[in-house]
Amino acid sequence: MRHRTSIAMLATIALLGGCTADPPAPPAAGASPSASSPGLTSGPYAAWAAGRSTPVVDPLYPERGTDAVDVLHYGLELSWSPSKRTLTGTATVQIRPTRDAPSVSLDFMPYANDTVTVDGKAATGAVVREKLVVETPVRADVPITLVVGYHGKPSTTAWPTKRGDAHPLGLTIDSDGGLWTMQEPFGAFTWYPVNDHPSDEALYDIAVTAPKGWSGIASGTPVGQDGTTFRYRSTVPVASYLTTLAVGRYRTLKATGPRGIPVTTWYRDKDARFLPMFKRSPTFLTWLEEHFGPYPFESAGLVMVESASAMETQQMVTLGEAQPLRGDRTFDLNTLHEYAHHWFGDAVTLTDWRDMWLNEGWALYAQQLYARDAYKVTKAELVRSSRQRDAELRKEYGPPAKPDPAEFGSTNVYVCAAAMLRQLHQALGDDRFFALARGWVQENLHTQQTRASFTAYVNQKTGHDFTALIDTWLDSPTTPAETGPLPQ
User: Fold this and answer.
1) Looking at 249, 275, 308, which one is the last position of a domain?
2) What does the pLDDT look like over 393-411, one tens digit per residue?
3) What is the pTM of this model?
4) Which stretch is the leader sequence (predicted)?
5) For residues 404 and 410, is the Cβ–Cβ distance under 8 A?
6) Is the residue at 309 inside a domain?
7) CA dihedral 82, 300, 18, 186 (to 10 degrees)
8) pLDDT of residue 375
9) In the chain, which end has fewer C-beta atoms inside a 10 angstrom radius, N or C?
10) Which residues in 295-393 belong to E strands, given as ranges?
């Protein structure tokens, strides 16, 4: 997740003390859960079967997202006019209703809606309290295609946190008239109609038309450029909070990661002095592959934006311009953290926001392990500082598995969950722990998981019942006692 300065420094302290013209190609077999809906096994919707999900109502933020629809695919045609400050879009959305209903609803900011159609026929749709409600009868498991044309000036939404680095979420206009977005736990609805919840992952085709001399950047694999229109495609599922969009005067730095993975950094002229830092992305990806298995996507990269934060947006990390200003070490640790999320959070996604620790604990622990390798921090130093900070955070925020909806992203979900993983590592040893980590990702690719499924996986994979250890570290109001390795 995005970093505030205190979280970035904490890791160091803890270690030292509209769709495209052609439909997307069908996804590879086995890339997603099976599509059991009759409308997804054949016919025009079969190409998007990999976008099938089981949406839930979020216990922390029930006003965002819905379990009444499962979006299979978003086709977004977007155009940005910096002089008019106007975003023009056409969203073509393939939807599987999960139950019979007189209407369908998606999260959406109140842009001016130019057209609304369902299966090619005009429909009535209006945005009320940031929900686009389209009056059309639907039947469970019978897919529909909703097309919404819209335009307007982007606006943001409040971030539900008291963090010191808090700023609005969603599509933001920068000082040069460009665009960027960060949107965890929600905010994608500020630029397209969306079921804005991680339990409803979908496939994406995004086309961004930028002014002449500008570039449009989005999450997904680049699939070509027509004039000033840049196209991206995601043929594996993406959670809405992991989508990104940026428009500006960008240059590119091309590199090759492990196994030939293309790595692209999008930067502005003012970022050019940091090119030596940007060139280290392949090193980070190689280290992560060695520890956690193959990189789970077709391409990787960074896009620099006018922010102090950073975000693990899928295939294209959104990196605030303040990050490299903090120096090589902090830049390396934070950037590796965001890339680690591509395994833990992007490839395997939480089901609801109660389990944010499942993303952040893994990413921070990977960051700590990298710093141990790169900066030769001893195990004793890591244990001592980890326990000290864990105790402080449990006292301030409580245990990591009981997040406060008004304190999204509090530091306990990072540090206390990473401490739990350190205990698992200590119990299992290197070989078994990294086998567990690699298996968790590779055997659950492109799915949503929960605390219960994680615990069950750990117990099954290791042949040992770790339920009490996991529960204690996730639920205890005070720092649990240290435990040693399992008997050999």
Assistant:
1) 249
2) 999 999 999 999 999 999 9
3) 0.93
4) 1-21
5) yes
6) no
7) -80
8) 85
9) C
10) 300-305, 310-311, 317-320, 348-350
What distance lies between CA 220 and its chain's CA centroid?
12
For 385, the token pair is: 């500082």
Query: Domain range for residue 463?
Result: 348-475
Task: Kindly report, residue by residue over 474-487, the tens digit of the pLDDT.
Answer: 999 999 999 989 87
Dihedral, 229, 303, 322, 363 alpha carbons, nearest 10: 150
d(Cα 478, Cα 470) in Å, to the nearest integer? 14
CA dist list (Å): 12 to 276, 377, 385: 21, 10, 10
Closest CA to 165 of 315, 291, 326, 282: 326
What does DSSP say about strands 262-267 and 300-305: parallel, antiparallel, or unpaired?
parallel
Identify the domain boundary among 232, 249, 266. 249
Q: Tell me, what CATH number does 385's domain have? A: 1.10.390.10
Between CA 148 and CA 116 the distance in angstroms is 5
CA distance 440 to 85: 44
Length of the chain in terms of residues written: 488
Encoded amino acid at 458, one letter: V
Query: CA triplet 338, 343, 348: central angle to 5 degrees?
Result: 120
**Complete edge-to-edge strand list for the sheet that includes strand 310-311:** 251-256, 262-267, 300-305, 317-320, 310-311
* pLDDT score recorded for residue 452: 98
Residue 200 has pLDDT above 80, yes or no: yes
Task: Tell me the CATH number at 160.
Answer: 2.60.40.1730
CA distance 125 to 135: 6
Q: Which residues of 114-147 are buried (b: 16+ CB within 10 A; e: fewer)?
A: eebbbeeeebebebeebbbbbebebeebebbbbb
What is the count of structural domains for the chain? 2
pLDDT digits 0-9 by tens, 101-132: 999 999 999 999 999 999 999 999 999 999 99
> 328-387, pLDDT tens digit by residue?
999 999 999 999 999 999 999 999 999 999 999 999 999 999 999 998 878 888 888 889
